[in-house]
Fold this protein.
Amino acid sequence: MAMWVFGYGSLIWKPGFHYDEKFIGFVKGYRRVFYQGSTDHRGTPAFPGRTVTLEPNPGEVCWGVAYKVSKEEDKKTALEHLEVREKQYDMKLYLDFFTDPSLATPAISGVMVYLASTDTKTNKNYLGPASLEAMARQIIHAEGPSGPNRDYLFHLEDALNKLGCEDPHVRDLANAVRRILAMNAPC
């Protein structure tokens, strides 16, 4: 039986594991938000970066990529990789994945999704909502072992654009970061 993994953040452009197939599609009832703190990849414990998680939101959809992993050894390796990479996400759900907005039947059922809960007892890195300006400034200044937080945001925006999936939250945040950077650029 194949394992399916849904990527809605950096997994879109950098899965880091072997997969057999990938499909562009979406999960229903969630929206992508920059509410999860990153102290191990795009920030530090002293200055966390912001990465995406999924927030329940009836009527919304979140576009991304579903990866099919079939071979037992590949599944084991992928899970080991994901458990380390996604360790700051405290929840794992299995959701329906859709590829056609006009159909009510999912293309794939039981796609594994890592996400961050809002429970700060189990998720020490949950940052939650903030103004666009505050999130943009935090992203501009945060940097961790995987690089500047702004690179994560711009890579995500680019990856979504390449998939043909516009996300207003990602677009607006990327534009806010660009605006602040342009205002602070030397003439």
In short: Helices lie at 72-85, 132-141, 149-163, 168-184. Strands lie at 3-7, 21-38, 49-69, 91-97, 108-115, 143-144, 147-148. The radius of gyration is 16 Å. The first helix runs from residue 72 to 85.
